[in-house]
Amino acid sequence: MKLSKVGAAAAVAVALALTATACGGSSDKASGDGGSTAGAKKDKIVIGIKFDQPGVGLKTPDGKFTGFDVDVATYVAKELGYEPNQIEFKQAVSAERENLISNGDVKLVVASYSINDKRKAKVDFAGPYFLAHQDLLVRADDTSITKAEDLNKKKLCSVTGSTSAQNVKTKLAPEADLLELGGYSECLTGLENKKVDALTTDNSILAGYAAQDKNKGKFKLVGLSLSNENYGIGLKKGDKDLQTKVNAAIKKMQADGAWEAAVKANFGPSGYKNEPAPQITEGS
Question: Which of 94, 131, 206, 258 is the residue whose CA sits 20 to 30 A from 180?
């Protein structure tokens, strides 16, 4: 009889092991429901960020991640049930953000991702969690560019897939010579080498670059507000449950002071004056 009980227990153990193997873990791609499930262990969450935007989203030479978007992503992930060591950050270049979400390569995109109707046709957003304004970065000794119209007949640089360059080209300086590159750092090199005359994107991003030790004294922001850029957190279209949870996390971050602390830590050193935390409108 004892042997029979042992055999039965072993059979149950084997059955449980097989069931667990068949179900698999949640570590593949961007798996997991994005929310806390009682008693469930989630291995990781994959979040798309920028790797080349100082102050916003930057991968440092030692493999660490810094910036305001990184702080927001980490806070939101914790509210969804993930510790920092369970976050996998994946590079999300501007032109690929919608594809990363739609293909399931990431669960969320927190990458200076401005909310607009064209993007909302493909993905959903939570937020916004930050309001930036489009500006121009020029060389510190350049006095020829004080407004967007001054870019006519000059070389303007931005990244592929960014709305900023198109905004200038179509509305403000149609005769600007537009160069679109893979990353802002490439544009910055071109600006320093005088191959381009200006770099355009959000003032938060430009301030981050200008504040870097290696760039201090080389560049300046013109100080324009060419557009309002409401940063949202991108997620799979139709995932209302995740959208609601992320919105709740953003509200909590704003309410408990963590949002303001992250702004000061990442943008304060450059003297950048941020707007107050915006009202959440997505999903409402």
Answer: 131
